[in-house]
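USER: Please consider what follows.
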Amino acid sequence: MDQSIKNLVRFFAASLLIMLAAAALNFTVDPLQIFRPARLLTAVYSQDSRLQNAGLIRSQTFDTVFIGTSLAIHFRQSDIDRIMGVTSLKLAMSGSSSREQAFVLAAAMARHPKRVIWEVDDWIFHDTPDIDANTYLPADLYRGNVKGIASYLLSGAMAWESVWTVVRSIPPLKPVLAPMANEGLFKFPLSRVDDINTLQPNDDVAAIYKAKRAMAAFRYITDPLRSNYLLDDTDYDMKVRVFERDAVGLISANPGATFDIYLPPYSILQWVALRDTSPETLQSVYAFSALFCRRLTNFPNVRLFDFRSVSEVTHDLNNYSDVIHHSPAIDLKVLDWLAQGKYRVDASAPTEPLDRLKAQVEAYRLGDAER
């Protein structure tokens, strides 16, 4: 046999051996816990929700799913469990569309949870590419098909994480390696589910959430050079179509589960920004919101909550880091409201909370925030 052919055969044989070794390592360690919950080795978790959620759905025990956007990302599962009296699984994803959320929820519903707590805002309902065109969400891994499992097992990056997981599971090395567990070096730096995408003890909450930052964000988004994005939400028919496909479709397909859906307490500045820079967008949002509330309150397995007009929260700008994102203290209030059934939308008057919000937006003057 020609020497060049022999070398080529050796190369392919060596490559195959490396791939098989990586697959064996990834299957044995299973850093995402796709095949089994972590037992012999230290459990590890990523802040990349779109990746990590695929493993959480398969490995965790839960009767309640908590999902939403960045407004739900900092909630702690332990707080959800304690206040709501449930065993929860947080699947919130920053910047997620309704298509992404419905897809991830559908995967979680295969585990038959009794309850879904869903933070929903109007802006998630927009046209996005098909889920398989989403490069940030490993759809086949959620499906558990051959393509998804193969990409997981044969991943060199995942093999590196597997090696790290083995090393950090060795008791004498744990205190030495703990300072190295950061996202700059590893994709799975966390050892507790409760810490996924939450504020850490050394975060200065008072500096993150304060009126000065909220007002700065307001001025930024209303600057004529940057305010055009506020015009991007005026396609009412598109929003209705996407809402029917993603939210109504999922609710209808799971009549045995209770859906606690809530509209989050944006600061009043978000609505004032729309009022002053894009009134046509505001009217479109109002119209869609009215349909949204009427439609959802017709479902027997839906409890709808509207926190948008809770003025003691939404008018206190010290609760916000910008015009929409509220502090951990408000996270706890939201959970408490849900547990008590406060601010639930009455099916006989589904637009009453919206009407209160409209009145507040119309009456609000910026001087109120600057005093």
In short: The chain has 17 helices and five strands. The chain has two domains: 15-198, 205-256+265-325+346-371. The two ends are 87 Å apart (CA to CA). The mean pLDDT is 91.
